[in-house]
């Protein structure tokens, strides 16, 4: 089951706007070499032997030149203004899928350009150690209600859709637009979106949008269960080479190895970026007049710090842009998670938010000092990915520098590694007893809360900066493995409070650390 592409209309306001700028610049530089020509200069073209180091060498070579913007002026008339329905009607013919009928466990569907996906991407396969270019051929597409392009057009592609499984194949990943990609575990709907790289998000000087120029996909061995993808990344400030290994299943894993070459100094770069939608929920409604009790595909940010502390921060749909930084060194994991799996919490039989994936990042190697960044953007619609999280290293990239980084990404129902602690599973807030006070109810659930004797000695350690905490109360339900914590926050004259709550017994944590930002 796949989530409609029109949920990604944020591209028109963010990546799409940046792409439009690149297209305009590219039109003014029509004599510049194409991306494909630059790739060919590095001997990664049709029929040549493939070596992963060649992608890295290509990125290194490109970094020594000014960026060549993507050019979308070759699109047939009207294709850039297709409606979503028109564009979604353009699909590859069943027999045109790469490796269709070969029983290799994967098929690749090249994706047509059009709609908001106008930028060209080159696709290659690696067959018996040699590069094979996937040539554009209009006869391999069903155009639905759209007039096909001219027969001699070579439009390249906008990305690719990956399916897995032999007897019951299902879509498992999509790479399309800038450096966006998404995946899912078996039984899920597409939801949160990942980005290979994020540059300067939320800054007044404007975000820089990197983009994929080309993919090289290794033909998988039968029954191997994995797919290896190489990619070339480019932007105004840097270039990069990626090697991604996809392993679908009940937990779908994506191992990412990335080498970056900086054209310019970069003081704000993000790794392991994930984006998701949060419109409303019990802890953040902002007066939405919506028949659904909750509208979100992710509920919070899960973190495991370098010291091993498990932290959970519910996300919100704030009235103003909010940026939070969680300082750390060598984090053990972080990501956007969906903790609400009860369909009754959403009552939306179309979107099925309870089936959306959590996305967990496990850094590999030494990531050094930095912070998990959380950006929460005000939104009035559930088509916007208004929550962003990523790792921001403290050390900037110097011009001319080379940087390598790796991580394992899990698309899952819950993070593969779970704490032996109670989890914050539900949050509610409302008007307090007086003045500007806010009342919170936080539910913790976990096997340890079934121990009545331990629960009797459990206390809630709650703090706020600034402000004061009042009226703390605990409701233990050992038979339900649940502890409910109620309290009020008095912000005084302040408009923002940072809350921290952890259940403790005998001075030791019984629960993960729950964080929250309250804004007036």
Structural class: mainly beta
Measured by DSSP, the beta-strand proportion falls in 35-45%
What does the main sheet amount to? 15 strands, mixed
CATH secondary-structure class of the domain at 423-519: Mainly Beta
Give the overall pLDDT as a whole number.
89
Shape field: globular
Runs in which pLDDT lies below 50 for 5 or more consecutive residues are 1-33
CATH architecture of the domain at 423-519: Sandwich
Fourth-tier CATH superfamily name of the domain at 423-519: Immunoglobulins
Number of strands: 33
**What share of residues is helical?**
under 10%
Q: What is the CATH fold-level name of the domain at 423-519?
A: Immunoglobulin-like
First CA to last CA: what distance? 39 Å
Computed CA radius of gyration, to the nearest angstrom? 24 Å
H/I helix tally: 6
Draw up the topology in text.
Layout: H1 10-13, H2 15-28, H3 35-41, H4 52-63, H5 84-88, E1 91-92, E2 106-111, E3 122-127, E4 130-133, E5 141-142, E6 159-164, E7 170-176, E8 180-183, E9 193-195, E10 198-199, E11 211-218, E12 227-234, E13 238-247, E14 252-262, E15 269-276, E16 278-280, E17 295-296, E18 300-304, E19 310-314, E20 322-329, E21 333-337, E22 358-364, E23 369-376, E24 387-393, E25 402-412, E26 423-431, E27 438-445, H6 452-456, E28 459-465, E29 468-477, E30 482-490, E31 496-505, E32 508-509, E33 513-519
Describe this protein's structure:
- By secondary structure, the chain is mainly beta.
- It has a domain of 97 residues: Immunoglobulins (Immunoglobulin-like, Sandwich), CATH 2.60.40.10.
- It has 6 helices and 33 strands.
- The protein has a 15-stranded mixed beta sheet that branches.
- β31 and β32 form a beta hairpin.
- It is globular and about 75 Å long.
- The two termini are 39 Å apart.
